[in-house]
Amino acid sequence: MYIAPYVSSPLSVVRRMLVLSELGSGELIYDLGCGDGRIAIMAAQEFGARAVGVELREDLVKNALEKISELGLNGKVKIVQNSMFNVDLSSADVVTLYLTTSANEKVKPKMESELKQGARVVCHDYEVLGWKPRSVDKFCENPRLGYPSHTIYVYRR
Questions:
Q1: CA–CA gap between residue 122 and residue 153 (Å, rounded)
Q2: Strand order in the sheet with 135-139
């Protein structure tokens, strides 16, 4: 099984993704390929959401679980070591992705069949081909650079 290299989203981008998703208190968010759990952690800490992170790599899962425990978020954030294809997304209000366009293409049928009406999908830098985004946000993490350094795609099922 191929495991993609881990590249984390900057915290400013994570916060922007969560704001653009319109994540509400008590909603359930799934982060597919959650890495160190930063999206799930911020969703619980700053937005009052419940969160599930899904990650294949054991070392990243271990680090995320340690951070969640340190922050006292055990009841609000869960990290699952598994393939995103083995996790039921039917209860998700929001799904976040920082995968490649080809990986998004592979998980697209799963999201189309499992996500409930009104669920939001938010992608960092890579779109879901064939879906029409509600919004495309060109986000400049460092305004001094003078150009957008990240693109956030927001979809609603």
A1: 6
A2: 77-81, 50-55, 28-32, 94-97, 120-124, 150-156, 135-139
pLDDT digits 0-9 by tens, 93-134: 999 999 999 999 999 999 999 999 999 999 999 999 999 999
Between CA 21 and CA 71 the distance in angstroms is 24
**33-44: b (≥16 Cβ within 10 Å) or e:** bbbbbbbbbbbb
**Per-residue pLDDT reduced to its tens digit, 44-92:** 999 999 999 999 999 999 999 999 999 999 999 999 999 999 999 999 9
> Contact at 8 Å (CB) between 21 and 154?
yes
Residues 6+ apart with CB under 8 A from 4: 33, 99, 100, 103
pTM to 2 decimals? 0.93
Cβ count within 10 A of residue 63:
16
What is the CA 61 to chain-centroid distance, rounded? Answer: 15
Segments making up each domain of the chain, as ranges: 11-156
Which CATH architecture best describes the domain 11-156?
3-Layer(aba) Sandwich (3.40)
